[in-house]
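Researcher: First entry.
Model:
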Amino acid sequence: QVQLVESGGGLVRPGGSLRLSCAASGFAFSGYAMKWFRQAPGKGIEWVSGISASGSVVSYSDPVKGRWTLSRDNAKNTMHLQMTSLDPEDTAVYFCARGGTEWDISRPVYDYRGQGTQVTVSP
């Protein structure tokens, strides 16, 4: 069965960095776009970033553009989100999700998701 497992969350000070990882199994990872979403306390789910199946195309939401970098390693069935210049507004549960096709990188939908990892940015 499809499994997506996030890791790398934690508590960090404003301006700090974290690297989130998503380990995928149970499907042909290299055939699907992958995405990151987040949900802050009391708010809805927000699309953060997405990467095409080959990794050739990456897209970011405006709040994180220029601060974060998304990559994937199809040989290892993993995806990584390097987050820098973190701000308290970035505090949320972050989860990875599978896109519907190899190019579905920015639609705010998914068919499978992980349970998420908590990122807290606080002094």
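Researcher: Second entry.
Model:
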Amino acid sequence: QLVESGGGSVQPGQSLRLSCKASGSMGGLCMGWFRQVPGEESEGVARITAGGGSPAYADSVKGRFTISQNHYKNVLEMNNLRPEDAGMYFCAMRSGGCLPTMIPTEYNYWGQGTQVTVS
């Protein structure tokens, strides 16, 4: 089970810190964050190996977001937020290793989501 926390409503330029906690060892090798906006496809935002290596980011968030992994907790630090960063953010785990792509169907386990509003 994956449980996200840390969403909220902020003004442009401000920061938020999202956390994702796994209920014990789920055996996943890759953790990712996805953003869902109503009427649009889910977008991969960032991913990292379960060991905390090889972070990767969507072009739209490079230099502003930082993903980290420590044991069973994953954190997405979001700085200098923009209105277009708003959406429902989901934490996801992939059983296999991280892939160069960040496609939702590549991930096996999902959290319930946490809402981010920037306005």
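Model: Note on the second entry: The chain has a mean pLDDT of 94.
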